[in-house]
Protein: Type I phosphodiesterase/nucleotide pyrophosphatase
Amino acid sequence: MSGSTTGAERAFVLGLDGVPWRFIERWSEDGTLPNFARLREEGASGPLDSTRPPTTPLAWPSIATGVWPDKHGVYGFQKLSSEYTHRMYTSQDITQPRLWHQLSPSIVGNVPLTYPPDELDGSVVGGMMTPSTETDYTHPDSLADEIEDAIPSYRISLEYPEYADDLEAFESAIDDLLADRRALLDLLLDRTPDWRLCFFVFTAPDRFQHLVWDEDRLREHYRKLDSILGDVMAYTDERDANLFVVSDHGFGEIETLVYVNYLLEEAGYLTRRDDEGTRGALSKLGITRDRVTNVLARVGLSEERLATTLPRGIVDSVAESIPGDHALYDVSYPETTAFVHDAGNLYVNDTERFAHGTVDPRDVPGLKSEVTDLFESVTDPVTDEQVLSVFDGDELFPTDDHSPDLVVNGKPGYETRNAIVDEPFGDTGSTAASHERTGIMCCRGPDIESGATLRGARVVDVSPTLLHGLDEPVPASADGRVLFDAFETDSPPATTKVRRRTVNVREHDNSVDDDFSDVETRLKGLGYME
Structure:
C-alpha cells in the first residue's frame, strides 16, 4: 500500500465484523497481535457497545450514520409488513446519510447493507446482503469487470451449511475469502488514490467464529487480521490519516437455543396454524422444504433462482403452503396477540399495525409487561439460571412508532430462535458461538492521544468522532457524541467546539423490493430466513 501524502484530512475505517474487545485486549498484551498492541500504544482504544439486538444489519448503519435504528430505519435482516410478509432490508431503507455521503471521494468496500450501491464520487463494492457478483453490486458498474479480472475467485459470501461437518475445509475457505477481501482493498486503494474516506469491512472473523470457537484456530485467524492491520497502519501513516478500527459487536460461545415463539404459544399469546389445508396435507405426505429444495437441486434450480424468477405473490403463496421452519407462516394471526420475528424482535399484534391484529392499541403496554414477565421467568432446567434478557422497544427506539415492541435476546451462552417447535430449548448444532454486545474501537492518527482509553464508547459515537476529527460538522440528528478522550489535549479537535448541521432524511425507494434478487434469498427460498 503506497501513495502520495495529502495531509491530515483523511479517515480510514477498518471494520472487523464480530471482533470482541476481550480478544484484542488479551492477545495484544501477550504478544499474539503485535500490530494491535502498537495500535493501542500509539492511539486510543476501548470496548465499543453495540445495538440491541447486537446484529450486523443494525450496528453497521449505526456506525456509519451516528444514529440508532429508530432513526436509520433498519431493525434486522428482513422488514416485516402489516400483512406478515417480509422482504430483505437494503441500502435504500437507511434514511440517514452515511459517512460516504458527507466525505468525498470515498471508498466503500464490503460494508454490510450497501446493496444496491450508491452513486457517489469514488468506488463502492456491496457487502453482506448483496445477492451475488451476478448483480450490479459495484459503483461504477465497470468496477465489477476490474474485480473479475484481478480477483477471479471473488465472491460475496460462502455457502456456510456446506462446511458444517468439515471445519478444515471451512477454515481454508475462510482464508481464501480473507485473501480475496485483502486483494479487493488494494485494488480499491489503487483506483481511488485521492480518497478522503475509506470504509472497508472484513466480515471473515464473524463468519469464522460462528462455526469455530477453538482458541488455537481463533488465534491463527486473528494473526492474519493483525497482518492486515500492520499494512493499513503503514498506509495511513504515509497519508497522515486518522485510522479507526471498529467492530459492530462482540462474540461469545453459545450452548443452548431458546425458542421464544414456543414460549409464547405455551402461554397462550401465539396460536399455531392447524394442520388442515394445503400446508398440513403436504406435511402429512412428507413434503417439506428440505425435500422440495433437494428436488430443485437435482434439476438444476436453486431456491434463489426460483424465488427471484417467480412473481412476489406466487413466492409468498408457495412459501406459505410448503411446510418449513419459519415462524411467520406457522402462525394463525387472527388468534395471536404477540410473536417474535428476526433477531428477537417481538411485535404485539395490534389492530392499527397489522392486517389481522387482535390487540387494541390501548392494551399494548399491559401486554408488553405480561410478556416481559413471561420471558424473564424462563430458567435453564439444569442450572436454574435466567436465560433471556428483555428490553422495551419504546426505550430503545423512541422516535419510531413502528419499531419492535420488545427485544428479547439470550443471555451469555444462550441464543433465541423464532422457529415454532415443540420444546423450549434446543441444541446449537453446528453453531459454536454468536453475537455479544461488546466490540472494539481503536483510533490512531495525527491528533489521537497515545495510550488513551476510550470510556463509554458506543457504535453511534464512531461517526461523530471521525467527522469532528476532520473538522467536519456532525449531523444535528446524530445520537452519538464526539469521544474527546481520543484526541490529544492540545490538538485542534480537542480544543474546537463541535459544529452541527442539518441533514436531509432520505426517502425510501420501494422499487428495490421489486428488483431485489438473490439476497440470501429474498425469502430464503421457500422456507424464509430465520
Observations:
- The chain has two domains: 11-249+437-526, 255-426.
